[in-house]
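Objective 1b. Sequence-to-structure analysis of YbfB/YjiJ family MFS transporter.
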Amino acid sequence: MNKRPFLFLIGGIFSLMIAMGIGRFAYTPILPLMQNALSFTNAEAGYLASSNYAGYFVGAVLAGILPLKKHKTFYLRISLIVSILTTCMMGLSHFYTLMLIVRFISGVASAFIFVLASSIVLDKLAVTGKTSWSGLFYSGVGFGIFLSTLFIPSLNHLFNWEGVWVGLAIGSIILTIFVWLWIKDSPNSNVKKDEKQLINTQAPPLKWLPWLIAAYGLEGLGYIVTGTFIVSVATETPTFSMEPTFVWMVVGLGAIPSCIIWSILAKKWGFVKTLVFSMILQSIGIALPVFWLTQSSFIISALLFGATFMGITTLATTLARQMSPSNSSRIIGYLTATYAAGQMIGPTIAGILSSHTHSFNSALIGAASVVFIGALLLVSGIRYDQIPNIKTISIKSN
């Protein structure tokens, strides 16, 4: 195995662990601890989550329109520093308004890291002929969720919820050291070309991109309800006798291999068809606790959710990059911005609904329905999976 692209890949995985697994998603298992200590309502918890996703939306838009092409690694490093600082600040602030601001800034940093790391790593893997490793790259989110959640009960026991945030920030600093060492701009990247035949890429035409963007936006709107409140739902359910954070660990475990599995299925079935199937499967997982309220249903729901949400991201971003390989940063930025817009709305609606109804059922049913509708929007693109597309192209890293 070539060591350089492998270390490059590990650096990308660590970037996603910091920005997504910790900076973005650690809020989900820490939320019940904060609500217990600070008496947050579900509506206030939803606003706090939406603030983060509003920042994610702004960051995704900026990453798509700013001229970042020549200095991607530099901006990635700056974004990692901001992400670590905001994670730490969440444990040092007790004022709700300040938390809203901190989570917003954290969201901006997360979006920059996701877009930049995706563009840098996917381009590097393309140049070195390692595109099959893309699923490994996106497993960083699952690893980040699993490993961070693993330490949360102990950190909370020793230092309360504030110490959880600070402890995760320290862990992020350690990971960032390796990102700094392993992800560097290559001086020869602008002249190195890898000319090869791509068989059965089966990418839809660029005119179909609006359908993908709309479906991905609905995915963002729907999935984030479970992504924000699943631990809180487990905490409030009398039949769930385990440590509630265990549910989020299951999500992480499901997410780790999911990107690889969905990528393999996409090669066999086609990207659009696989994307439709994964979104339908996710909608079932989201709605499951409403109709089957047991400990087992939470575990299955968490596993289905973990097994699909990053897989869907992998499929959608890879498909978008295939549709416009020469402009990957901008296309992924637009796609992520729509996704973030959905995320920004979802927690607020779910939080308000659950506060008024004193139940998460209506929010979960609505979220499942939205994801299912998104899957239906993609059905028109399945015909492109059946058209072999054999061509020779020249791939340049940026």
